[in-house]
Fold this sequence. Notes:
The structure holds 2 protein chains of 2 kinds. By secondary structure, chain A is mainly alpha-helical. In chain A, 46% of the residues lie in helices and 6% in strands. Chain A has a 3-stranded mixed beta sheet with strand order 6-7-8. A two-stranded parallel ribbon of chain A has the order 2-3. In chain A, strands 4-5 form a two-stranded antiparallel ribbon. The longest helix of chain A is centred in the C-terminal third of the chain and has 30 residues, at 384-413. The relative contact order of chain A is 0.11. Chain B is globular. The interface between A and B is large, with 118 and 82 residues.
Amino acid sequence: MERLVKQTTQLIQYHSTNTIPCQASFPPLEPPAGGPFHNSSVKSKSTALPPSPFLVPAVLEALLQSSRYQDITEVVPGEADLYCAKYLSQYGGIVLTGDSDLLVHDLGQDGAVSFFKEIEHSAISDTLSSQIYQPAAICQRLDLPISHGLHAFAFEILMDSHATFRKLLVDARSLKAVTANPSGFKLFLKEYKQLRAPLNSNDSPKILPILRSLDPRISEYVLQYPYVAQIAGKEGISQVSETVHVFLPFLLDCPVRTNAWEVSTVIRQLAYGLINLIVPEAQQKLTVSEHRKQQDMSTGRELQLPALSQIPDACNAITSLYFQLQQNLPGLSGSQVWTAFALHQDIEYSHSHSKAQLSKLVVQQLAELGNKSNMTKRKKGFTWDIVQFFAQIQGSYYSLRILKQITSLVIYQTPAQSLPECLLRLHQQLDFLPKLCELPRLDGVSSIIASLGKGALAIITSHILGDEEATPTPQESGKGSKKKRKRKGDQSAHETSAGRHKPSNPFEILGDE
Amino acid sequence: MGIPHLTLFLQSYAEAQSIAGKHVVIDGPGFAYHIYYTCLSARSGARNPFEAAPSYEELGKACIAWLNGLWDKDVEMQEFMTFRWNIWTN
Lengths: 513, 90
């Protein structure tokens, strides 16, 4: 949560000091100097913004695609530190980490820690070496009480962060802070309490491999349901909490515009709601609290989930839109149809909110950038509109990825005959969703629209306009042609009340198709 | 959260050793960030964070190259690489 607030501040600051977010042409890539174990410092201007939003899922994706590393890659159902520590205390070995906290965990007699940045390759001997920290041996050398070990030393640091090493050591040996502040020490120890759950469960239900390969943020969401947590072997989740939280990756968008996750909200609502198909009724939820950008420690934005009876219609809406885009834009690959789908979400959103169509604006701005006669220095820069567009498309892709992963989970956990057929169809279509490694960088933003061929934007737009002109269906006749206007009202109320407003039917957008 | 200066204090008690043939467990999120910053540092010509950020494809390749570096030196990567699960609890 604190990280989210910090990242939000960072983005707002960057936006306020950079009217042009970056130049349109990026310097060419340089091959990494000195091989993979060469460490050099990072310039502060490279870290003026939060890291790429899908950094961890992209690394996970690369590992799971590698035949060499996929079998040793696992998303654990809890804090990584605890699992690493438990493993080392059972089997010994070294944990490679960037986090000094692991030094304080109980790693057993033979467990050791090494930091990524300290691993070095010696060209002379062609060996890899590193500084190895073995906490049990260090405790002995420091003559710390066996009963408290490095806990006592770490707690002294926390209580007096300006003291010298010598003073901290003397105090730790006599358990000074531990004795003076027993309740504080008890609280401190909680974070380092050894994991009770076994590392590997004996029974392997069919969905376990799926649970172990979900993106961490998605895993965090589904493991809040005791039914799923139990299958995954997560301890301490006996009942579903009153509020279920989702922390979305931090999109680098334009902070004065509507959050870039907004246009794809309806996809995530369906994704979150699918979990109700597999959990017992008592654990089913009607809402989740979603955290995107936020400037304070608020409880997030409440999103309504579809009722079980609405799920087939919502799935059908996506599959039929996918099918229609495929028909209207012949020749596109399955993956490109999802790009068209993401663009459709942007255009539909602009249209239903009576806003200027962002993709159209971006096409004009990119065309101006491509026009060499306009190449004054100022005009060579990307605009925040382009950054926003790029973030929205990324948000749409990732919302579909959440849908894909939760759909897989549901399908593997339920007999096929008891699932709505449209969910199986959706699952098949989502198989074509671009992988994260296929997404362009910001400098490739023009390829997003260009990949769909000439006129794609106009075709998608007319598809949306055509829908609006269509006669309302009998059950919607009460709303009639004012449907779009009403939707706009719903959404803006949603934003101003930080999500406390519950739309009457959040699936109206999908219901159009 | 990390204990301030802990690594610095304990540095002189660490031992430089070859990690060839050793059994290791890798902290997944830490690994992802390490590779990300390695990619950033390789972009000496970047003028801002957008230019410095690697593509996801490049990031994935850098991860595999790094792990292959361990593999080539017979470092035995154990059963799992863990990815941090960091839900907000309140």
